[in-house]
Structure formats: C-alpha cells, structure tokens
C-alpha cells in the first residue's frame, strides 16, 4: 500500500482529478503496485522555499513496503517520476525533490490490524 504525498506552492487548479488519477497510475506502474492500493494526497498552495527561491516547486514523498528500500530501486523510481512531473506540471528538475521512505508491513494499519497480518 504505497503512500504518495505531494506538497507544492502551485495553485490547487494545477491538480485536477485527472492529474491525481494519472499520478496514481504512474506511481503504481513505477513501483510495480496495483493502482487500487495507492494512497495519494496533494497539498497545493503551500508557502515553500526551495534553493533560496519561492518559484514553483514540488516535494513528493513516496512511502512503500518492499520497493523503496535500496538506492538502485529509488534511482530508477526517481527518473520515471521526475519525467512525469516535469511533463505534467511544467517544472524543471531543480524544482522537484523526491523523498523515499521504506516501510515495513507492521508500520501500516488497515482493517483494524497491520499489513503483516493481512
């Protein structure tokens, strides 16, 4: 069950339902996870400073079980997600940062238990 959190100083109008569906689909494919398990939150319109400027930017956090636990995997994920964000949002590489978090099954609760027991 991957969690995708996107924070940005871009206006909410940049993040339509269509964009959310595309981002969910793209990240599911990149991570090799089923789309129906994706959890996606977008927080637009935030006051943000990146690299000394408040120009449009995005911080994307990817938290998942078993697919974000090595530099090699995350390098590949990063390249694919960067391409998507650049094309969809019109940002340059220097205005996007992606953070990867490796989760263990016992750290994700669902249906009154944790993923270890599902």
Automatic annotation (TrEMBL):
GO CC aspect terms: cytoplasm; extracellular space
Main location: cytoplasm
Example GO BP: melanin biosynthetic process
GO terms for MF: D-dopachrome decarboxylase activity; phenylpyruvate tautomerase activity
UniProt-annotated location(s): Cytoplasm
Keyword set, alphabetical order: Acetylation, Cytoplasm, Lyase, Melanin biosynthesis
Enzyme class, first EC level, given as a word: lyase
InterPro entries linked to this entry: Macrophage_inhib_fac, Tautomerase/MIF_sf
Pfam families according to UniProt: MIF
Organism domain of life: Eukaryota
Enzyme nomenclature, EC number: 4.1.1.84
Entry coiled-coil feature ranges: none
Subunit note: Homotrimer.
Protein function: Tautomerization of D-dopachrome with decarboxylation to give 5,6-dihydroxyindole (DHI).
Protein name: D-dopachrome decarboxylase
